Amino acid sequence: MVINKPPNLDGRHPLHQDLLYFPFRPAEKIIGIWIAFSDTCRENGTLAVIPGSHKKGEMYDHDMPSHMEENLNLAYLAAKEVDISKRVHIEAKAGDALFFHPLLVHGS
Fold first, then answer.
1. Averaged pLDDT of the chain
2. Is residue 14 assigned to a domain?
3. Predicted local distance difference test score (pLDDT) of residue 42
4. What is the residue range of 68's domain?
5. Contact (CB, 8 A) for 21 and 84
6. What is the Cα 20 distance to its own chain's centre?
7. What would the pLDDT profile of 24-52 be if each residue is shown by its tens digit?
8. Quick check: is 11 in a domain?
């Protein structure tokens, strides 16, 4: 499954877990990959993750993103009850690939 997320085109993708969108299981046999096609930074869009959130071992509840946040892509649901103070923004160079568990809470 490939999801193209061009910068500044359709807004931010809220913090979520990919397993919510995958029609296949088990989670332990799935890996998410995020590839930077250009250099990324906070100003142009990074992948943000909640480190260790996949260790809960289950899906968080997801709901429509808060309408208070601007430029959100409303096609994506947001993970509920996530401590965003633990969010880490990962800057990447063009060609860098990040591999992660489908239960890792992340957004871009």
1. 87
2. no
3. 86
4. 32-96
5. no
6. 11
7. 899 999 999 999 989 999 888 889 999 99
8. no
Q: Is the peptide bond before 26 cis (omega within 30 degrees of 0)?
A: yes
Q: Which residue has the tokens 């296949």?
A: 24
Domains in the chain: how many in total? 1
Question: Quick check: 68 pLDDT over 60?
Answer: no
CA dist 19 and 38 (Å) reads 26
Work out whether the CA dihedral 74, 61, 33, 50 comes out positive or negative.
positive
Name the more confident of 82 and 44.
82
Instruction: Give one DSSP letter per residue of 30-98, joined into a string.
Output: --EEEE-SS---TTT--EEE-TTGGGG-SPPPEEPPPTTSTTB-TTS-EESS--GGG-EEE---TT-EE
Residue 27: inside a domain: no
Specify if 20 maps to a domain: no
Phi, psi of 75 (to 5 degrees): -75, -10
Give the bridge partners for 47, in sequence order.
90
Q: From CA 11, how far away is CA 95, in angstroms rounded? A: 22
